[in-house]
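Task card 7
Instruction: Convert sequence to C-alpha cells.
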Amino acid sequence: MKNQIVRTAIFPVAGLGTRLLPATKATPKELLPVIDKPLIQFAIDEVRAAGIERVIFVTHASKTALSRYLMDDARLRERLIRQGKPGLAEVLRDTALDLHDTDVIFVTQHDPDGLGDAVLRARDYVLDGPVAVVLPDDLILDGAGCLSEMTAAYPGCGCGHLVATMQVPKAQTDKYGILSVTRQDGRIVYARSVVEKPDPEKAPSQMAAVGRYILDPAIFDALARQGPGKDGEVQLTDAITSGAPTVGIAGFRFSGRRFDCGSKRGLLAATLFRARADPAYADIIGEAAPVTNFIPVG
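Output:
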C-alpha cells in the first residue's frame, strides 16, 4: 500500500498580484493583512495544524520580503524586549517558521508560466508520499482547518488527487477549474475530470476547485509531459485530469468559509468577516450587511 501521509506542502507564491495593484507593486499579495494577520500566516497556521513536515515556497526574485517575514528575526525580537514589549516579541517568535520542527525550502520561478509550472519546480524537494498545494490568497476561515480536514479524509477517499471543492453560481464557472462530477458520497465528490475555466453554458457542473490540493506524486510526471493549456500557461487542472484513469480524482467539500483574497472584494470581505467576529471592532462595523460564504471574483 502506498504511503498516504501528507508530509510536504507546496506554496506557489511567485505571482505578481495584478488584481490588487497598486497595493502589490512593492508588497507581495501574500503579505497583505486581514486586519492584523497577513494572508501567508493563515496558510502557514493551517499547514502546521495539518502536521506538515516540509514547506516549499515557489517564489519570484522580486519577492524577498516573503522570506524575511517567514523566518525568525532574533535581532528584532531582542530589540522589542529591550523596549519593554516582550509580548510582541513572543508573537513574532510564534508566527515565524521554526526550523527545528519544519523544513523550509525556497525555489525560484523566474517567469509566470502557470500554477502547474510552479508545482513542477518543487519536484526535487518533496518528501515521500502525496503532496499538498496551498494557495494563500484563497483564505479559508472557520471550520476545523481545510487542510486538516482533507488530510484526514484522503486515505479513505480512494483517489490519488483530492481537491478542495465548493459550489459556485453558474455564471462564475469561467473563473475556476470545474469538476465533471460522477457521484457524491458525503463530503467526497468524485469526478472524471477538471475543466479549466469553462464557459458557463458548457460547464460540466457548478463544483469548483479552490486553493487546496492533495496530489499523488504522479502529478510531477504528468506536469513534465504537459504543454501550455488555457491562457498559454501550464495548468495544474490539466495534469490532474490526465491522472483520472490511473489515480482518480475527487473533490472535498470543506466546512470553512472561502474568500478570494487575490481580489479587492474578497480581501475586503475577509477583513469585514474577521472584524464582525471581534467585539473590539463592534463600534466600527455597526450594522454592516453579513458576509456570505461565496465571495465573487473581481
